[in-house]
Specification:
Chain lengths: 649, 336
């Protein structure tokens, strides 16, 4: 049995309660804020010695000095001589602990007097009720970190049923930027999830939206792991290696030549897929891009009409339209609009099928503008390259890089992808049973105040109903207090890295003791405070540095490609499909064509991934008869003109 | 020495309940007051002493003392007592007495209880059995009448002259208080003897060292007396003592009380007395007989002055109390 490190004390002024108790320790005792302790009661209750588990939430230290003035007097006002005193004043370390668990749990009584021991690994499991989900044969524990105190190293597990549903779900991370907490924690947790998620609970994948910087762009590249991290990895039962299956998706730049991602270095392009959408994909989410001023009731009706009756349908000529239309792309839609408006002008009509000409012009303007605002993502031609909805692969991370995109394009990507994921999960045909969606910068996408945007509605929907579908939101932000309450409130698990003191002064953190708040404001890299449904109090843990290449290192080793020539862009895109393709070959094939035609041919080839890439790519171009060198015409005989015929007849 | 004034504890109350059964008509005293030790009520006296250092008492500046001076004391000894009249039967006082003593050892500048001899706490009930006919035979712990950790002490026995005390409550109370004083002295002496037997580092004893022969002759027992009911100076010597400046000591003299051991002693001013009475910051130090007594007195004086920080506030005797002694008292207050 280990040695007692403290004794429970209670006074009338500071009594113990069923949820809190006080104890003192030796001055050099290895305890501090966040340490888990066990109290062994002195008197048996119902034949059982009560054991109370608690976590230290506050600490006090004082001496028998009544007033600081006595110390000043005692040392003649000279701090330097104070150190020469033969005896140190009697000093106390008094701690307050919040109760984690009492055994027996009934009747719930104030914590009795007794000896206090440092919790060992078994105690930690019992204290945090982890014993309930770490049973042999029904183990749903997902290691999240290691609790360390006074020589105790205990793995802290989250319950998969409460992290990914169905009991509770979702995870929210808060912490200041720049301390490698939020992204690193998610990367580590995903690695742990992929390793430890029980096989019998089905498959799992993750979709991560990279909204800023290159941090998520090198998940498949090995990172630097230090010795102490290796120890943590071993303790946590996870191999320190990068993710085995990672797929990247990114739209093109506005020019359409290179992918608009930090990961567009040629050496890393083999698992980067362009993200391009056409009219079909976008129109359903027009609401995301059009604000309420744009879309009044009349415009909304016209957009519905177009969605229902025009797009993808044979639209017959009528009295206004001069010809039949089949709208498959933004270019087709613009032609359709042009036809409608010209027809109305010819007939001098003010409305067509109840839609006023002004509304038609407005909707045309707004919709046509989408492909411009989201250039690189939305194509005029209708070419589509998308996430593999329906064939998601178990234990795969799908990263959608939207970091360099305009806000509109980011919103559109987020809204459409999440909607599609939800649709497929509802139909149970996504390819995996559980899907984690990671979104950073929740302050921006689901703010507590501001307009009720489409994206925020979607995040609320995931947070409130996603767990029934297997759609789990891992979200992160710097200021939790500024995120919509229902999003963070529905997150069953909360991780907190180092916090900004201003943020800690907001009411949401009032439940934490001042000492816990102070610790939160000074956490080191790799330390987290965890709230989880099974834990009655927040717990501090350490997690290992993710074993993937960090963004800064990755961007130095694999610099982002600058804008290149169209031939080089084609070569870079097609070479992964056919390594025999060379730049001279591309130049020869594309010499006579416009940039739009070349890009269209490239996109079509990339989408089709044919066996004979060269043949397929070449076949995408219209036939142009090469210009022949001009020949001097043969000189013909000059007819003689009759002398009396001035007109030459 | 600490005089505690908290009420009887749980076992004291249990003893009282038992006595109430044995002594019908016994009245409980609400809010029992604490009685001062007898020594504080002794008459002030001036006594002569044999000068050992020189021919007459004079002031000696303690050499080489500075704030950096390290103390050679390794431990502190003090005792505590609590005497309360908790009840009476027809005026005959029932007294609860608790005595305790402890040695607090200094390790790495922090004080901790001497592990070899744990602190002692003894509780007794002081009854004038001669005047309590219902208790013709003193109850014993073994017969279950009183709790095991309480003993009965008869305060109405005959003294060495064969005289019995009168049935005056004040006389009986004085008897009880003297008995408690003696209990505390014995407890302190036992601890001091144990310490000296091991010949460990010098022990700072709160009070005199002459009661026990072995302690009085030990070089590691140093007594520091804060109260001056008896002053070992007369005539001009008295002026020398009162006129000591901070950091000055008197010449060493020999104290040879009746029925006690002879020890060497001197007065030492540990704090300046300006603005206070003449005894403020004045202690009397006792040590065993030794060669080169003046040098030893200088050394011990430096140690005693070094023990004056940290201050012993808020204790009212902080002007001459070492912090280690205050620590002992606080410790005894906690355990008794």
């Amino acid at each position: 049995m280990s040695e007692a490190l403290g004794r429970v004390v209670a006074t009338e002024r500071k009594p113990n309660t069923p949820h809190e108790f006080h104890f003192w320790t030796a001055i050099d005792s290895p305890v501090g804020i966040g340490t888990i302790v066990r109290v062994d009661g002195a008197q048996p209750m119902g034949g059982q010695i009560p054991h109370i588990y608690g976590i230290i939430v506050e600490g006090f230290s004082y001496t028998d000095l009544i007033t600081p003035m006595h110390d000043v007097l005692g040392h003649d006002g000279s701090p330097t001589t104070a150190g020469f005193a033969s005896t140190e004043r009697a000093e106390i370390r008094l701690y307050t602990a919040a109760v984690l668990r009492q055994i027996p749990e009934e009747p719930l009584q104030p914590v009795p007097m007794g000896q206090v021991f440092l919790a060992d690994e078994n105690d930690v499991q019992v204290a945090l009720r982890m014993d309930g989900y770490l049973k042999e044969g029904a183990n749903t524990g997902i290691p999240v970190g290691v609790y360390r105190a006074g020589g105790t190293d205990a793995v802290i597990y989250l319950d998969a049923d409460f992290l990914l549903g169905p009991e509770a779900a979702h995870l929210n991370i808060t912490g200041v930027s720049g301390l490698a907490t939020k992204t690193s924690a998610v990367e580590w947790l995903l690695a742990s999830l992929f390793k430890h998620f029980p096989e019998d609970k089905g498959s799992i994948a993750a979709v991560c939206f990279n909204v800023k910087g290159p941090d998520l762009c090198y998940l498949d590249q090995p990172g630097k792991i230090e010795e102490n991290d290796e120890v943590l990895y071993e303790k946590l039962g996870v191999e320190p290696k990068p993710f085995e299956k990672v797929e990247y998706f990114a739209p093109y730049t506005a020019k359409g030549l290179a992918l608009n991602t930090f990961r567009n270095n040629e050496a890393l392009l083999d698992n980067v897929t362009p993200l391009t959408w056409g009219l079909h994909e976008v129109l359903q989410f027009a609401e995301v891009l059009l604000n309420k001023d744009d879309v009044d009731a009349k415009a909304d009706a016209l957009i519905d009409f177009i969605t229902e009756n025009v797009v993808g349908k044979e639209f017959q000529a009528d009295g206004v339209l001069l010809k039949n239309h089949k709208v498959e792309s933004f270019a087709d839609l613009d032609a359709w609009f042009r036809d409608v408006l010209q027809g109305m002008e010819k007939k001098n009509g003010e409305s067509w099928r109840t839609h006023h000409v002004a509304t038609i012009r407005k909707v045309r303007n707004r919709l046509s503008n989408i492909s411009t605002r989201c250039a690189g993502l939305v194509t005029d031609s209708g070419a589509v390259s998308d996430l593999p909805f329906g064939s998601f692969v178990d234990r795969t991370v799908y990263v959608v890089d939207v970091a360099n995109l305009e806000e509109d394009a980011q919103d559109l990507i987020f809204a459409r992808i999440v909607s599609k994921l939800r649709e497929h999960l509802e139909r149970r045909d996504l390819g995996v049973k559980h899907l984690v969606v990671f979104v950073d910068e929740l302050n921006k996408y689901a703010p507590g105040d501001g307009p009720d945007t489409y994206v925020r509605k979607m995040l609320l929907d995931i947070a409130e109903r996603g767990r029934y579908l297997g759609l789990v939101l891992f979200s992160a932000q710097q200021f939790r207090s500024q995120v919509h309450r229902r999003v963070v409130g529905n997150s069953g698990t909360g991780l907190f890295g180092r916090m900004d003191p201003d943020e800690l002064s907001t009411p949401g953190y009032a439940v934490l003791s001042p000492a816990t708040r102070t610790k939160l404001a000074t956490l080191e890299k790799g330390q987290l405070m965890i709230r989880h449904p099974h834990f009655t109090q927040p717990i501090f843990v350490r997690f290992p540095r993710p074993s993937v290449m960090q963004g800064r290192e990755g961007s130095e080793r694999y610099p982002q490609s600058t804008e290149i020539s169209i031939d080089a862009a084609v070569l870079r895109t097609l070479r992964p499909l056919d390594p025999t393709i060379t730049l001279p070959w591309v130049q020869e094939i594309t010499a006579l064509y416009t940039d739009d035609e070349i890009i269209r041919a490239r996109n079509a080839t990339l989408l089709a991934r044919p066996k004979d890439v060269k043949a397929y790519f070449s076949a995408q171009f219209r036939k142009i008869i090469p210009a022949q060198p001009a020949q001097r015409p043969m000189a013909g005989s000059i007819r003689t003109v009759p002398e009396n015929d001035p007109y030459g007849f | 020495m600490l005089v505690s004034n908290s009420g009887p504890d749980a076992s004291g109350r249990a003893a009282l309940r038992l006595l109430m059964e044995l002594l019908p008509g016994m009245s409980i005293v609400e809010g029992a007051t604490v009685l001062e030790p007898v020594t504080s009520s002794d008459q002030p006296t001036l006594r002569s002493a044999t000068i050992v250092e020189g021919t007459k008492l004079r002031a000696v500046k303690v050499p080489d003392f500075s704030r950096e001076t390290a103390s050679g004391f390794g431990a502190f000894l003090d005792g505590a007592q609590k005497v309360q009249v908790v009840a009476h039967q027809f005026g005959m006082p029932v007294v609860l007495g608790t005595v305790s003593a402890a040695v607090r050892v200094r390790l790495d500048r922090r004080l901790t209880t001497w592990a070899l001899h744990p602190p002692r706490v003894e509780r007794k009930i002081y009854l004038p059995l001669r005047f309590l006919p219902a208790l013709s035979e003193p109850p014993k712990a073994s017969n279950g009448i009183v709790p095991a950790d309480w003993q009965i002490v008869d305060t109405s026995t005959a003294d060495r002259n064969g005289d019995y005390p009168i049935a005056h409550p004040a006389a009986l109370l004085e008897r009880a208080v003297r008995a408690v004083d003696q209990e505390r002295d014995q407890l302190e002496d036992r601890l001091a003897e144990a310490w000296c037997a091991r010949g460990e580092a010098p022990l700072y004893i709160d009070g005199g060292i002459s009661r026990s022969a072995s302690v009085a002759s030990s070089s590691c027992a140093i007594g520091v007396i804060k109260s001056h009911r008896a002053l070992y100076a007369e005539g001009d010597a008295l002026g020398v003592v009162f006129g000591l400046e901070k950091g000055e000591r008197s010449s060493v003299f020999r104290v040879s009380p009746r029925s006690r051991s002879s020890v060497l002693s001197w007065y030492l001013r540990v704090r300046p007395a300006e603005g206070h009475d003449a005894l403020w910051g004045l202690v009397r130090v006792e040590m065993s007989e030794c060669d080169r007594a003046p040098e030893r007195a200088d050394e011990i004086s430096r140690w005693v002055m070094a023990e004056m920080t940290p201050l012993s506030l808020p204790d009212g005797r902080w002007d001459k109390m070492a912090y280690g002694v205050r620590d002992c008292e606080e410790f005894l207050r906690a355990i008794s």
